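Note to self: keep these together.
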Amino acid sequence: MKKAFCLLSAVVMLMGFTACDGNDTADISSVETSSIVYNSQVPELAVEGKIDGVKFAVGTDVDEVVNFYNGNGPSIDDHHGTINMSSNYDVSGSSSLEPETVSESENVFSDIDSSLPELDDEIVYDLTIRGLDTGDRIIKMYSYDTRYFYYNASPESGIAYIAYFADNFGYMIGHTTYDDIKTTVEADPLEDRVAEEDEMFFMVQPLIGTKMLSYQYGDYLLNFFFDENDKLFSTTIFDYHVWTE
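Structure:
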């Protein structure tokens, strides 16, 4: 009788251990493991001088950009490197429009004139070109959320700098945070600091305390800028061999 009782006890204990082991396994498998999902678009496009969502890349021929946005409008003068307007320039379908000319200083980081459209203002035609034939060092071209820049003296270098104020690489303007980008870009930032005022030359009004994450991909520097709430508001890219003071 005692033997039978001992045998039964052993069986019960063995079943108990098995149940415990099963529960332990279930508990381990049910634990959620956090993982960082890296954004593969960033290096894939940035290494080519591109921002996702922007039509053209850094280095694109200026004439190609102008002709895309304005059709038979402006074209580069082969001899003087300036832009001429055609007499039949008409992108609205009802009236001929010409970009304004704005004089600025020779400083590459001079403030953008207050007469330029705000980011949220509707632009009645696709591309506005500033600084034509004024001797400005930098020519600025605006198309909605995209800002292209190139050197007036050397348009043959193509688009030298691009600033973009819309969603890109899957990141949302005004929503994606500083930490979101820092943890999804599979590289250590070249720069991780508060941006200097001259690094925000592409803005109508530089924001004090703007954070900047800068990454290098080949010849290109890709920068993300964040407002005081650490929310993304602009992405820029440029070839550091071309974009110099």
